[in-house]
What does this fold into?
Amino acid sequence: MALQRLLPVSLLVAQALGAAYPVITPAPSLEDRDEALKRDIDPGSYIGSIINSLGSGVSSYIASGVPQFFQDFPIGEDVEKALDIDDDDLKATPTQVLNIPGYANWTESGWSVRIHGNVFKQPNITQEKLDSLANKFLIGVDINDLPENQQDQARNFTASIFVVQQQNVSVTVNFQNDVNVRPDASGGVVNAKGGAQSIDLPYNTTSEGDFDAWLTLRNTTGPNGGHLLAGNATEQIQALNIYTNGTDTGNATAYLVPPTGFTIISDIDDILRVTKIYDPKEGLLNSFARPFVAWEDMPDIYANWSATIPNFHFHYLTTTPEQVTRNYMDFIYKTYPLGSFDTRPLNFSDVSATLSIRKALLDKIFQTFPQRKFVLVADTSNSDVMKDYPQMVRDFPGQVQCIFLRNTTATDSSDLFPYDTSGFKGIDQKQYMFFVNADDLRGVDIVGGNCYNPAVKQNVTFEYQGRGFGNDAGRAIDWSWMTLYAGLLVTLGQVLL
Ligand SMILES: *[C@@H]1O[C@H](CO)[C@@H](O)[C@H](O)[C@H]1NC(C)=O
Ligand SMILES: *[C@@H]1O[C@H](CO)[C@@H](O)[C@H](O)[C@H]1NC(C)=O
Ligand SMILES: *[C@@H]1O[C@H](CO)[C@@H](O)[C@H](O)[C@H]1NC(C)=O
Ligand SMILES: *[C@@H]1O[C@H](CO)[C@@H](O)[C@H](O)[C@H]1NC(C)=O
Ligand SMILES: *[C@@H]1O[C@H](CO)[C@@H](O)[C@H](O)[C@H]1NC(C)=O
Ligand SMILES: *[C@@H]1O[C@H](CO)[C@@H](O)[C@H](O)[C@H]1NC(C)=O
Ligand SMILES: *[C@@H]1O[C@H](CO)[C@@H](O)[C@H](O)[C@H]1NC(C)=O
Ligand SMILES: *[C@@H]1O[C@H](CO)[C@@H](O)[C@H](O)[C@H]1NC(C)=O
Ligand SMILES: *[C@@H]1O[C@H](CO)[C@@H](O)[C@H](O)[C@H]1NC(C)=O
Ligand SMILES: *[C@@H]1O[C@H](CO)[C@@H](O)[C@H](O)[C@H]1NC(C)=O
Ligand SMILES: *[C@@H]1O[C@H](CO)[C@@H](O)[C@H](O)[C@H]1NC(C)=O
Ligand SMILES: *[C@@H]1O[C@H](CO)[C@@H](O)[C@H](O)[C@H]1NC(C)=O
It folds into this structure.
């Protein structure tokens, strides 16, 4: 990546510091970028021109916090174009289904379960081509310079991005009460004793290959006369396996969650694993190549909560694109308590929707469980979290029990992104905590509603803060991440050509 050809750093700094830190505006659409690149404009000056035009999307996006740099994965025809795929070859490859573990609520007609995921084909990509595609995601390092296990991971990750979504296909799922939850493996999760049945989803996949539907489960009798427990007759979370007809790739588990109790909604990057999303070069290596690593002793904290908070429902919500969900689930289920999952669906792939997807997913789970109380966990480097989490307190009165945000700036000098704490103004201090180390969470009392551990030094100014914003004025600021980020936008844009 030739950084030199990118815009002068001073321009970025002037923009970032001079702007009034507006609310994020959507970045320019992918089409615009695509068009501009097609017109053979030098990428450096293209980004420069965007940053230059005051109030433009990218400048406010950069100024407002960490970008979701995985926002522009290619979909549909772009994949076929990039790979020069032969239609007949593709037809011959098996159809696969990503079925994402969902939750169910108790309604007047019984258990209503959310089934979501997508249908795709995995083209046969030569290693040479895969390597060249993988290199576009890595900054300043060639895939061949990585250790062998990291090369494999990078190829795996890249292959899972370059899949061809299958639109307008029907999906049939098959529920089986054959989960084998180890006793005490996860809070109050128990195996459902009935409920086996096959159901056709009410509509075909969208043009992006997505499906997201609610199905009502019949109360079928299982072996030994077992049956599903009614939601108002149990506090426990029942687990039911889901298989997808026609493929063995669409397996998942559904969690039948009673109307009352506590649910934790946890982000993953930089809270459950070390990503350094605010440091693009590292962030990409940590996502594409290196094995996922848990952050500090969060696994112990979650294991303890799972064991001590009765029937605690775990829900993992990340805005990472759906294509790489398997890698995330693989890590989470090996490291953290079992639970349902949400990632960014493909029909939310365009850049403007990226900024509202977290709120949409949060609203959905809050509306599904109007009597449950929620614990929200993430870190300060997500600008959408900083806005959406406190907004949930206002939009759903009484439903937010605790908000825990890891202060990434405090432990990581490479995090130079400012973050906005103004959303917390007026919220009871007992309801939230900005913490530094995972162990800070040991002193909180979730069930009792004492979410702030007074031993933790916290300084919420209800405005933009972070390095270079008065909190750490003495430091020399290295704005080179901005050029890296600008470079990254170009990189991902080019993948599409
Ligand atoms: C449990 O829920 C069902 C369905 O909503 C309802 O018919 C039944 O009366 C409820 N039972 C109790 C004890 O609330
Ligand atoms: C993929 O393509 C290579 C040659 O390009 C071929 O040797 C291999 O058998 C193919 N694999 C599958 C699963 O079709
Ligand atoms: C990548 O690895 C995951 C986890 O091991 C596996 O489930 C998946 O099939 C692999 N994907 C590809 C495209 O090879
Ligand atoms: C879906 O496929 C069916 C059968 O091939 C076809 O009749 C229908 O028009 C298609 N719908 C869309 C939206 O493409
Ligand atoms: C749904 O897809 C199936 C093929 O998977 C097709 O036969 C059917 O006509 C489609 N239904 C509609 C309503 O488009
Ligand atoms: C299923 O039926 C059994 C036996 O009639 C009943 O005890 C149980 O509450 C029912 N469960 C649901 C989910 O309706
Ligand atoms: C799906 O699989 C189940 C279980 O094997 C079977 O009972 C059902 O008929 C299948 N449905 C379709 C539409 O293939
Ligand atoms: C899905 O479940 C089926 C039936 O238990 C099993 O044969 C298959 O290996 C599973 N698929 C994966 C990817 O684990
Ligand atoms: C169950 O979830 C659906 C979908 O979010 C929601 O519309 C409905 O109100 C919920 N039902 C109850 C009883 O909470
Ligand atoms: C485990 O969690 C409980 C609250 O659920 C808390 O009181 C206790 O201090 C925690 N223990 C450890 C070792 O973190
Ligand atoms: C985060 O940590 C930094 C460095 O210790 C500190 O200056 C800042 O005030 C903290 N932010 C919050 C919200 O506590
Ligand atoms: C909190 O941060 C503000 C600016 O961000 C700073 O002026 C103030 O001195 C800090 N307060 C403490 C107690 O550290």
Residues 480-495 form the longest helix (16 residues). The longest strand covers residues 110-121. Confidence is low (pLDDT under 50) at residues 1-68, 469-497. Residues 407, 409-410, 421, 434, 458-460, 465, 471-472 surround 2-acetamido-2-deoxy-beta-D-glucopyranose (ligand 11) (CB under 6 Å).
